[in-house]
Amino acid sequence: MPVLVASDLDRTLIYSAAALALTMPDARAPRLLCVEVHESRPLSFMTETAAGLLTELGDAAVFVPTTTRTRRQYQRINLPGPPPKYAICANGGHLMVDGDSDPDWHTQVTARLAEQCAPLDEVREHLLATADPAWVRKHRVAEDLFAYLVVERELLPEDWVKELAVWAENRGWTVSLQGRKIYAVPKPLTKSAAMREVARRTGADLTLAAGDSLLDADLLLAADKGWRPGHGELADDNWTAPAITALPERGVLAGEQILRELLKETSASWGRGELRDQPLPTRTRQRTQP
User: Fold this and answer.
1) Quick one: which H or E segment has residue 127?
2) How does strand 62-65 pair with strand 3-7?
3) How far apart are CA 201 and CA 6, in angstroms?
């Protein structure tokens, strides 16, 4: 019964140049590894130390990248370590198995959305009608499941997102502001449901999770233990729960610390005998030999 680790990616494990939050002198900055290239330009990074930790974690646990990104956006990312068998894309709308979306899972999700919340077209029309072109740069629909806007944060009226959240709440949707993106997502479209399905398929006895945004809250609460960084929506709201650890680190160094915590908890679960029916992963056995 393996450990399952479901972690958000953007601003949790990987970071754009604008989100690195490096406050030390340049000469003391950590070495960075580019893990995403888009249109021939480096886009997302993690520290080289974090890359090594993620490789170890991939050997010791079932690591499941868990993201609001579309499948195409996720596939641009080249994470270090063994290729994950499972990944969760589109906030749980697609469960990827060996690189392909599981059609049965997607059918179940779309049926649930049709039954429980207002249609995507209604939400999209509201966004088009109420968002000011002065601060909106892009309107997007992701995987025919949810919508989001790319905005200029410095021009975004403070009350607009709050008003949108109230409007969406009454229609079974939720709103999340992440960096320059405002997401409108159906409430039944959750990362936690997809994580539970992976846990069922793998027989995982222990689930660990990490994330920084409002869309990660359900994932963190569904896991046995969770971690959030010192930045993001959850940190801004001082959000926590009994099994959640709020880390003080911010930016790319928070991603590094999250991986340390995940790997430490995974290793401890082996030491506690929770997984006594399974042999230790090869890399873990080698690390513990004198």
Assistant:
1) helix 120-130
2) parallel
3) 14
Read off the tokens for 78.
């080249």
CB 92 within 8 A of CB 65: no
Could you give the CA distance from residue 14 to residue 129 in angstroms, rounded to a whole number? 33
Residue 10: what are its φ and ψ, rounded to 5°?
-65, 125
Q: Could you tell me whether strands 206-210 and 225-228 are parallel, antiparallel, or unpaired per DSSP bridges?
A: parallel
Contact indicator for 116, 172 with CB cutoff of 8 Å: yes
Determine how β-strand 206-210 pairs with β-strand 3-7.
parallel
Residue 192 has pLDDT above 50, yes or no: yes
CA distances from 52 to 55, 56, 79, 85, 259 (A): 5, 6, 11, 19, 10
Task: With a cut of 80, say whether residue 282 has pLDDT above it.
Answer: no
Q: How far apart are CA 268 and CA 288, in angstroms?
A: 12
What pLDDT does 286 receive? 34
DSSP 246-257: E----THHHHHH
Q: Is 240 helix (H, G, I), strand (E, B) or coil?
A: coil
Q: What is the pLDDT of residues 28-48, one digit of tens each?
A: 999 999 999 999 999 999 999
At 56 the pLDDT is: 97
Rounded Cα distance between 283 and 141, Å, is 42
State mean pLDDT over 118-122.
97
Assess whether pLDDT exceeds 90 at residue 290. no
